[in-house]
Amino acid sequence: MGRVIRHTVAFRLVHPSGSPEETEFLDTGRRTLAAIPGVEDFVVSRQVSAKSDHAFQFAMSFADQAAYDAYDAHPDHQGFVRSRWLTEVAAFDELDLVRLD
Questions:
Q1: What angle (nearest 5°) sits at the alpha carbon of residue 22, between those of residues 77 and 52?
Q2: What is the per-residue pLDDT across 40-55, written as a single tens digit (0 to 9) for each?
C-alpha cells in the first residue's frame, strides 16, 4: 500500500480581496477539484499570517501516488489549471507531503 499524500497549494489571486471574482474562483475550485475521483479531505483555507503574501490554500489528500497522478492528469484538473489558474493566480507555492513515521 502507498503512503497518503497531502497536496497543498498556497496562493494569491489577481482579484481584489472580497470581490465577486475572488469568491467565484474559490467556489469553482472547490466544486471542480473536490469532485475529481481520488480527492479526499478537500479544504479551502484563508491565510491569516502577516508572514506570507499568499491569501488562500487549497489542500487535499490522496491515498497514494497513483491516485495523485490520476488527479493531476484528470481533464477537469487540467481544464481548471488552463482556464482559471494560469490567468487568475498571481503567485503560489505548492507542497506535496507524506508523513514521517
A1: 90
A2: 999 999 999 999 999 9
Strands in 5-13's sheet, in edge-to-edge order, are: 40-46, 56-62, 5-13, 89-97
In the chain the first and final C-alpha atoms are separated, in Å, by 15
C-alpha grid cell, residue 88: 487568475
What distance in Å separates the CA atoms of residue 82 and residue 89, rounded to the nearest whole number?
11
In this structure, what DSSP letter does residue 16 have? P
Would you state the cell numbers that stand for residue 43, as one nine-digit string?
479544504
Task: Pick the closest to residue 41 from 78, 75, 83, 71 (CA basis).
Answer: 71
* 32 confidence band (pLDDT: 50, 70, 90): very high
pTM: 0.93
* Dihedral, 84, 88, 12, 77 alpha carbons, nearest 10: 10
